[in-house]
């Protein structure tokens, strides 16, 4: 269990465990995987939005009374890490229909095993925005750090980044939070460990492959 103040683990309810049971099953049909994964992603997005700044905003109710409410005070941008991160984009759009969307493509070099930035397209005013960084899997942390580096080099303040993550390993979590202690991270599960092949245990397989229907090859 994480002890980082800026790491927010979804409440480990029976309902969440039941959803995880479906999507972790290697025999799960793709439509079942997608349906149950989307339910968890919606929980993650709602939890991430709760970390944003709010301001007071009063409204008049249908009976003529004042409700002293709140509204989000942040300019937002969602940045999925292509390809797996795009699985989370639809849930963000459902909750925030007009949200700006950036894109980052990072892949590991087959020779060096190091993450390499292939593509980045962000709004011109990204430095003025709070960013929901969308990436389902955080294993070794290399790709996550590369994506965060893209944002900070574009002027985004570390404390204005909320990393929306599906599964994380203890090793990847420590590496990312040590490098960026002011970043906030939301996840649905901290796994037991990485195995010798850098696969998360007990794991879920390759999230992008299972979500989009390509070959399952394990999650790194």
Automatic annotation (TrEMBL):
InterPro entries: PRTase-like, PRTase_dom
Key words, A-Z: Allosteric enzyme, Glycosyltransferase, GTP-binding, Nucleotide-binding, Transferase
Superkingdom to which the source organism belongs: Bacteria
One of the record's GO molecular function terms: GTP binding
CDD domains: PRTases_typeI (cd06223)
Signal peptide range in chain numbering: none
UniProt pathway: Pyrimidine metabolism; UMP biosynthesis via salvage pathway; UMP from uracil: step 1/1
EC number(s) reported in the record: 2.4.2.9
Group of enzyme by EC: transferase
Domain Phosphoribosyltransferase: from-to ranges: 11-214
Cofactor(s) named in the record: Mg(2+)
Record NCBIfam families: PRK00129.1
Family: Belongs to the UPRTase family.
Protein name, per record: uracil phosphoribosyltransferase
């Amino acid at each position: 269990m994480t002890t980082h103040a800026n790491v927010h683990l979804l409440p480990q309810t029976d309902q969440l465990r039941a959803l995880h049971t479906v999507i972790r099953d290697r025999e799960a049909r793709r439509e079942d995987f997608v349906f149950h994964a989307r339910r968890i992603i919606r929980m993650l997005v709602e939890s991430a939005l709760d970390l944003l700044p709010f301001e007071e905003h009063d409204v008049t109710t249908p009976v003529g009374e004042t409700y002293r409410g709140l509204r989000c005070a942040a300019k937002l941008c969602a940045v999925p890490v292509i390809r797996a991160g795009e699985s989370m984009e639809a849930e963000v759009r459902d909750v925030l229909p007009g949200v700006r969307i950036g894109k980052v493509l990072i892949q590991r070099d087959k020779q060096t095993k190091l993450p390499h930035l292939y593509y980045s397209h962000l709004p011109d005013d990204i430095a003025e925005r709070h960013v929901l960084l969308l990436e389902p899997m955080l294993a070794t942390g290399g790709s996550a750090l590369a994506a965060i580096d893209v944002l900070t080099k574009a002027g985004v303040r570390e404390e204005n980044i909320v990393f929306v993550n599906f599964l994380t390993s203890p090793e990847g979590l420590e590496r990312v939070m040590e490098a960026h202690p002011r970043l906030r991270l939301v996840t649905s599960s901290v796994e037991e460990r990485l195995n010798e092949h850098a696969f998360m245990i007990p794991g879920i397989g390759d999230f992008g492959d299972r979500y989009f229907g390509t070959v399952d090859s394990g999650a790194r």
